[in-house]
Amino acid sequence: MYQYLFGPVPSRRLGFSLGIDLVPAKTCNLNCIYCECGRTTQLTMERREYVALDRVCEELERFFFDHPAPDYLTFSGSGEPLLHSRAGELVEWMKERFPSVPVAVLTNGTLFTDPQVRRAVGRADVVLPSLDAATSAVFKKINRPHPILQIEEIIEGLVRLRQDYDGRIWLEIFIVPGLNDTKDELSALRDAVVRISPEVVQVNTLDRPGTVRAVRAATLSELQRVVDFWQLPKVEIIARSAAGPEQRVMRRDRESAILETVARRPCTLADLTIILGMHQNEVNKYLGILEKQRKLQSRRQGSLIFYEKIPDR
Predict the structure, then answer these.
(1) pLDDT score for 140
(2) Residue of 93, 215, 273, 300 with fewest CB within 10 Å of its CB?
(3) In terms of domains, do 299 and 270 share one?
């Protein structure tokens, strides 16, 4: 099994994305109520080498030797990847070693006040920061941040990122009904978006089981009302695709691929079918075995059933 890689997972934004997990679960400076990775157990602002960089590079070499190239190499996983102090070195290494594969950085966007962090993503092809609130009260309710984080400074950091970074910025705004979809909050978010000036704004909502079970997904009509209220160019709604990416065999080590992936994010049978390039009946056999071995469990979210890893005792 890979310790620091997972997938490639079928991403709604990045096709088949090979996840690179640079921090232990669940190390982050936010404890978002909707997070699909579960609650934050290490709430920290400390940047350090949480996992050995050479070990990550070794796994990437092994993956590319055994598997076809993914659509993206993506910093993602169990927490905030830019807390890793050598993330920028990894970006540089991947661009030199695998130049034909674009690099994406999924981040909560809170660390770009630091010039070192802005430089770390300089060679990435696309940065996908999130911004769920533009006022302090709503920021604290949704993102439950480390005490030193201030939303005004975070927004200023994203503005500086736009000034320093030549790549694409796809800003994600996650709508939590009843919290950040009020007129006042949407107006504040709109002002922030205008200042940040991303290539595109991607409006998202709950898609998988979140940390707080009371959080519900916004409906498509609620998301459309947000878009209509803003009246901004290049705003798109990110919704679960019925078809998903084209069918490709991305992993042959089936059980390992399943466990590595569901350890980071809950997946449906359809997700795993795409990842493995197998018929769903075959995937079901593996899921049945892993459930009997008490390595994973299922949980219903709306009309979908998600599989997730049972935590080690």
Answers:
(1) 96
(2) 300
(3) yes
Lookup: tokens for 149: 């984080």
Provide the residue range defining the domain that includes 221.
5-246
Domain edge (last residue) among 246, 268, 297: 246
Q: What is the pLDDT of residue 262?
A: 78
Q: What is the mean pLDDT of each run of 10 residues along the chain (313 residues)?
A: 82 85 92 86 94 95 90 90 96 96 96 96 96 96 96 97 96 94 96 96 82 83 94 84 49 72 77 71 75 79 76 63
282 CB-side CA count, 13 A:
11
Tell whether pTM > 0.85. Answer: no
- Indicate if 221 and 258 belong to the same structural domain: no
Q: Are 9 and 16 in contact (CB under 8 A)?
A: yes
Instruction: Based on the fold, state whether residues 207 and 254 are members of the same structural domain.
Output: no
Judgement on whether residues 151 and 270 belong to the same structural domain of the protein: no
Separation CA 98–CA 69 (nearest Å): 9
Joined together, the tokens standing for residue 113 give 């006040």
What pLDDT is attached to residue 282?
72
pLDDT at 251: 54
Q: How confident is the model at residue 244, as a pLDDT?
A: 47
Is 268 found in the same domain as 229?
Answer: no
Contact 36, 212 (CB under 8 A): no
CA atoms within 13 A on the CB side of 214: 3
Count CB neighbours of 166 within 10 A. 6
Q: What's the CATH number where 275 sits?
A: 1.10.10.10
Distances in whole angstroms, Cα of residue 12 to Cα of each of 60, 144, 245, 313: 23, 26, 8, 33
